[in-house]
């Protein structure tokens, strides 16, 4: 898919925030960077915890930071590991990103940019809740 997204800038921002990751338990620091509809770059890194299950993925930290900064619509995201290798977000993070990027969110990957719809087909979304409310 062809886009006008500056993935070079997004990857650089992801690598930069990755250096601030807190990942003493996995030893696997991750950085994530996204560009908003308004052109703002927002970032996040993974933040682990001694109670392992409480760790937060870089993508979740990114979304929390974005919303806290008043950014709610994401256009594209890039995620990387300590070597700068591009990662595709885990399943939970795909759902978290879908909330603020929708199925058109462009996700960087080793195979080129991909729409989130391809990585999270038939996603559970707001229209499903609307159906439940209608049926109630
Ligand atoms: O897309 C990913 C994949 C993994 N991790 C984190 C979770 C955990 O802290 C570490 C090892 O899985 O990497 C992320 O933040 N994002």
From TrEMBL:
UniProt keyword Lipoprotein, yes or no: no
Catalytic activity: 2'-deoxycytidine + H2O + H(+) = 2'-deoxyuridine + NH4(+); cytidine + H2O + H(+) = uridine + NH4(+)
Sequence ranges assigned to domain CMP/dCMP-type deaminase in this UniProt record: 5-127
Cofactor(s) the protein needs: Zn(2+)
Gene3D superfamilies: Cytidine Deaminase, domain 2 (3.40.140.10)
Enzyme Commission number: 3.5.4.5
EC top class named in words: hydrolase
Keyword terms of this UniProt record: Hydrolase, Metal-binding, Zinc
Pfam families noted in UniProt: dCMP_cyt_deam_1
Signal peptide: none
Organism domain of life: Bacteria
Family, similarity comment: Belongs to the cytidine and deoxycytidylate deaminase family.
Name this polypeptide is given: Cytidine deaminase
Organism this protein belongs to: Gordonia caeni
